[in-house]
Amino acid sequence: KLEEAFEGMGLFYDRKDGQHSNQPKSVRVDALSAGQAHLAYSLDLPEVAKKDRGRIFSDLYETVFTDELMADELLASIKVLSVIENKKKLLQSSIRKEEKFNSAHMFLIDGAYHVLFAVGQICDAKGVDRLNYQKAITFVPAAIKYISAMVEKAQRDDASFSFNRYFKDAKTKTKIAAYIQGMEKGL
Which of the residues 1, 52, 119, 180 has the least number of beta carbons within 10 Å of its own beta carbon? Predict the structure, then answer.
């Protein structure tokens, strides 16, 4: 069903690794990557998307790929994540090349799925449909700003802070959601 829906959008849905390897990467949708993005954006499980990707095709399969799941939901998740991933890749490239970069954005390397989750939270707070990925993408800078502020505070409060541990902790998403609700309501 998903494969047909994506085909109708001019995209190729890879259920198996390399299934459509003859097609350009720009028109391929990888099921695992889509599942991870969907977990973080639509199902509000960024920590699972980050650390337990193997579960997407095992115990979480029925949760992620329900019969009701629409290709539009996966597409929105992927589109927003791709904007975040591009920022992450630029950061990684700058680090590798020893160029100047914003050190406050280092969290993107481990926290991309939490930024995606934050974008979903901002959509909800503003009453924007998460499927409207064109609008959701405009919230990426705000999501990065919010999480950057939270990370800076966590680093100040915890001498042994690590990005990896912070973004694997299920409590982090609850803190992000509460922070965004407060910021978006102007509290």
Answer: 1
Question: Between the CA atoms of 68, 18, 53 and 145, what dihedral angle is there, to the nearest 10 degrees?
Answer: -90
- In terms of pTM, does the model score above 0.85? yes
Q: Using N-to-C axis directions, what is the helix angle for 31-41 and 108-126, rounded to 10°?
A: 50
113: closest CA among 162, 68, 147, 159? Answer: 147
Q: Does residue 33 contact residue 85 with C-beta atoms inside 8 Å? A: no
| Angle between helix 108-126 and helix 140-157 axes, rounded to 10 deg | 120
**What whole-number distance in Å separates Cα of residue 29 and Cα of residue 78?**
8
C-alpha to C-alpha distance for 174 and 120, rounded to whole angstroms: 13
Taking alpha carbons only, the member of 182, 47, 46, 42 closest to residue 125 is: 182
Structural tokens at position 101: 């970069």
